[in-house]
Amino acid sequence: MTDFITVADVDALLGPDWAGTGDPVLAVSMANAWLTAKINRPVADPTPEAIKLAGAQVAKEAAAGKLYTSTQKEVQSKTVSAQSGTSVSKTYVAGSTDQSAGVNFAMALLAPWIKRSGVMMLKRI
Predict the structure, then answer these.
(1) How confident is the model at residue 93 (pLDDT cuts 50, 70, 90)?
(2) Per its UniProt entry, which superkingdom is the organism in (predicted)?
C-alpha cells in the first residue's frame, strides 16, 4: 500500500475536526488503501494536490463509516421443483452500495491516474 496522504494532510485540507467521532489514523489508512486500489498509473513525487484532496474526501467518508461497508446478498428469485429429481435454485442480487458525494468527487479527481493513456499496440509474432 502506498501512503498518498497523512493525517496532517487531511487536517490541513479539511480542518482539525474532519474525523468527527471516527478514528483519524484508521480513516487515513483506509483512504490510502482505497487510493492504492484505484490508481493504476505512476504518481509523481511529491504527491499531486488532486490526489491529496481526493484522499482527504475518502478519509472523511471512512471516518464516518461510509467507505468500506458490508454488503448483503439478497435473494432475487428462488425455484423449487417437487417432481422426481427435485431441484432448487436461487439467484442472488449482486451486492451493490450507494456511492457518496465524497467518493464520487474523489473518483473525478483521480481520473487522470485511473484511466489508461494512449493506445496499446499488439504485434503478432
Answers:
(1) low
(2) Bacteria
Torsions phi, psi for 114 (to 5 deg): -100, -40
119 is a domain residue: no
d(CA 27, CA 33): 10
92: β partners: 75
Of 111, 115, 1, the closest CA to residue 50 belongs to 111
Q: Give the pLDDT confidence of 10-19 residue by residue, as tens digits.
A: 999 999 999 9
Number of domains the chain contains: 1
Residue 109 lies in a domain: yes
Does the pTM of the predicted model rise above 0.70? Answer: no
Of 61 and 67, more confident: 61
Q: Say whether 88 sits in a helix, a strand or coil.
A: strand
User: Residue 10: its pLDDT value, please?
Assistant: 95
Residue 53 has pLDDT above 90, yes or no: yes
Angstrom distance (rounded) from CA 84 to CA 43 = 61
In a domain, 123, yes or no: no
Here the cell at position 29 is 489508512
d(CA 10, CA 60): 9
Which domain, by its residues, includes 61?
A: 7-114
